[in-house]
């Protein structure tokens, strides 16, 4: 099948590369010429494990191409994906300008009946907007091609996106009444990923749009719920890790997304919570649980900095804090709404100096942190610790999982470790001579 994908971010590039890897002829479009030139050289601009070899393999086979031209995309495709960003607006709503612009550009160029698939995360009703925008442009041109629009939201975890695409747990397809042709095209497209068990779930487009938000918001609520329990557990002398294991063993609850920590970030959960709350406001619906998840997370992102401050009696002037991990999660260089940014802001505001290290995210972190003179980037985890008073861990990279606690105790001036992801066994850390602070640990 000939497929065009508009947008080469996490979703668009993974979608295009994986579809090409199973034999489709895929053309990816981006309006950023520098990014397209980079991709044409085979250079992947994002850190996503497993993506680079898929891109390289598909390009070498002649099945994956990149362009800035909508004309090429339209001429090439049997099906066109819209996979552009939908960032938060100032009021929390999803900014749909890129999606609508894509629809308009397609409407100005389509030369035959077409299938346009919205893969971007969009509020309920956006698919209708896309269809209407395309049809308006076709009407202005005086042509009457039949354009079918479908919804196919992504469920890709950053750091595991390629594996998630290749072995999906569900494939959500939203189509309009009696649009059997779109369903069959999408079923054919996803057949290589759907052989062992039928994971295709077909529904109407509005339900498909809502399903994406419902999934992300459910996971965000679970995280905030556990973080709130963790803060209470500390006061009661309860270990939240034991609680997590106990409740996660219940098949009605399950173990996923029950890890207490320093709050969630990234490109999805915060944005999608805000967008669904904005949608609810427009319908006069309270959605108190979603609001609580946002509020708990906002507080949780500063919990580790507060623990550091309390340890030093509220006076951080002249203190140096080593920080391991900047990306919002491991296996990505994504700094969007990372908890490390909130911790750095609070520590430096109160007089501390921060020496930070991350295996891949430091270039993006420098852009996010800006000209904060109290922040230094180290060349390694070990370098970050040398000369520091304390260590705070914010991202669960593998290289941070099993440090030399004895060396840390002999190097850190205050012999204190702040574990923002509950990576370590408190007893082991304390036995090495360190003071340990986790999230809800005893």
CATH fold category name of the largest domain: Rossmann fold
Strand share of the residues?
Answer: 5-15%
Class by SSE composition: alpha/beta
Helix content: 40-55%
CATH class of the largest domain: Alpha Beta
- Into how many domains do the coordinates divide? 2
The biggest beta sheet reads: 6 strands, parallel
Which strand order do you get reading across the main beta sheet?
A: 3-2-1-4-5-6
Which of globular, elongated, flat, extended, rod-shaped describes the shape? elongated
The end-to-end distance, rounded to whole angstroms, is 56 Å
Radius of gyration, CA atoms, in whole angstroms = 24 Å
**What count of helical segments does DSSP give?**
18
CATH architecture of the largest domain: 3-Layer(aba) Sandwich
CATH superfamily of the largest domain: NAD(P)-binding Rossmann-like Domain
Outline the low-pLDDT stretches. Answer: none
Mean pLDDT: 96
Q: What is the number of E strands?
A: 14
